[in-house]
Amino acid sequence: MVITEWLISRSVFGSSMSKGMRSSKKPTIRQLGEQVKYMDEEINRLSQFLNDELKACKEVLHRFFLELDKSNIVVLAMLENDGKLERVECGSCELINNIPLLDGLEQDKTCGHCGEDMNPEQKSLEDFEEE
């Protein structure tokens, strides 16, 4: 519905269509070709506009995540300096996970890289209850 209104406002369908009245004559092949060419140009302009907007959004997100990374480095350094950071190697993917040791913050033993339990060979409380 919106595209049709946009095309009518751009007079793609001719002046009689934009007034809500049908033309008594059918458009010629040349007129139809011109309309198709015009619509194609408008679609290309719209596509270029959306492409440019997407590039701008990517740039903003890139800068945002760079700043977030800087903040994370500072927070991790402060936690490590205070002895409130534990570095745990995942048993599955062997990558290092940083676990903050703060009161009131539950420690997640799931690897942030692969999603697996970081210590699969370690028995849980449920394993001991089964025995």
Quick structural gist:
With 131 residues, the chain is mainly α.
> Strand-residue fraction?
5-15%
What's the average pLDDT? 82
Show unreliable segments: none
Characterize the biggest β-sheet: 2 strands, antiparallel
**SSE arrangement, N to C:** HHHEEH
Number of domains: 1
Span from first to last CA? Answer: 67 Å
Number of strands: 2
- Gross geometry: elongated
- Helical content stands at 40-55%
* Spatial ordering of strands, largest sheet: 1-2
Radius of gyration: 31 Å
Work out the helix count: 4
Class of secondary structure makeup: mainly alpha
Explain the overall architecture.
With 131 residues, the chain is mainly alpha-helical. The chain has one domain. Helices cover 54% and strands 8% of the residues. The longest helix has 53 residues. It is elongated, with a radius of gyration of 31 Å. The chain starts with a helix and ends with a helix. The mean pLDDT is 82.
